[in-house]
Structures
1.
Amino acid sequence: MTTSQIVVVMVSVIIGAILKSTSGIGMPFVTIPAISYVATIEEAVVVGALPNLALNLALVWAQRSHWS
């Protein structure tokens, strides 16, 4: 990926993470279309899914005390 593509990915992930942290949904709705402007849709899905998975795992870990 070029530098401009990496910047687009980082900005879209940051905006998507802010949206997800405030509303609980929305990260893939922002990241996938934004990344698909600079990469193929297949790459956009993979690159968008990885930070979403990381954020979901962090949320699960932070809320583990509510499981029982």
Note: The chain has a mean pLDDT of 90.
2.
Amino acid sequence: DTGGAGLGLAIARALVHAHGGEITVTSQGKGRGSTFQVWLMAPDASRIVDKEKRRQGDWEIDKVTG
């Protein structure tokens, strides 16, 4: 028996949705396994503060977003 309490998917779904993502599942039927896909948005790389500017102290806190 590989059954569980059924909490894993509920917890994963809540976490994914909290981050603005989506979770999907496909299955070929009982005993054949399932495939879960999690889709999350990647951060906008243009919003990352340049490390060199951070070392030089040439940045403001409102520039650190994402």
Note: The chain has a mean pLDDT of 74.
3.
Amino acid sequence: MKRVRMPMLRCCPRSSSWSAGLSCTSSSSWRCITATNLRFARSTSSITSSNPAQPPAPPKASSSAANRKGKKLASVFQYFAAHDPSSSTALPVPPATVDFVRSITDEERKAAHAFFTKNAAFLASSVAAPNLPAEDQPEFAFVGRSNVGKSSLLNALLSKPLARTSNTPGRTQTINYYQAGSVKLVDLPGYGYAKAPVRIVREWQQFVNTFLTTRKSLYNTSVLVDSRRGITDKDAEVIQMLNTHGLPHQVVLTKADKLSRREIFVVLAETKERIKRSPFCSPIIYITSKDGLGVDELRIGLMRAAKSNQI
């Protein structure tokens, strides 16, 4: 075994006892002892231990990008549950959204899932008012810019790939009805950019506006907004129209998985500012259809609306 030279013990100038200087307050003595202990530590590190060396712990497997996004958004919902809107250090999250998420129970999540997935099926398509289904059940409409993710959201709500999705803006050119338990979900043509003549686009918009303002069985309209863009002027026009006619609606921020956690809070605050004078707007909800985060919250909000306004 290799010999090890023990560190020299020095007397603390303010103490009568011999020590390694740990209680000494003299800076010069402390530097001396620290250097001595460092040499001692280096010499002892070369000694072979009688115990076998432990193998290094294997590196942790890195999470995929999808898992990281899922954890990021899940942490936001957990933050909602514990968030205190009265705190001076709180991030700018709308209190109504926080209160809404806090009020949700596990039992209600299960009930909402069953409520929307039971007997889920495609019902009908229509390009004119006379061909619309009978107004015998509560209806929930989904409207937004072209390619905002309406069809993907409907598939997530129904837990079935019933709505046709596409990367081509303006793919939905009819009013499509889906049965979801005892309610109907309505996929409306997107506004904004679409690969169609201007005249056709205007006709769609007029048809959608008439539907939203005259359909008696329509309980709630979800205005889908791309969270990366925020509320556009056209989104604001639709929200204003719904408010003018006193129609219940809510803003649903889509594609939230494209944003960081901080960016999500910022867009929530900006959206709240844009709709602060919208008395008929429900709490803001953001979703990512790919991971399913926020889908339960939207289901519950719609289910509560249906139960509070039974036909």
Note: The chain is about 40% helix and 15% strand.
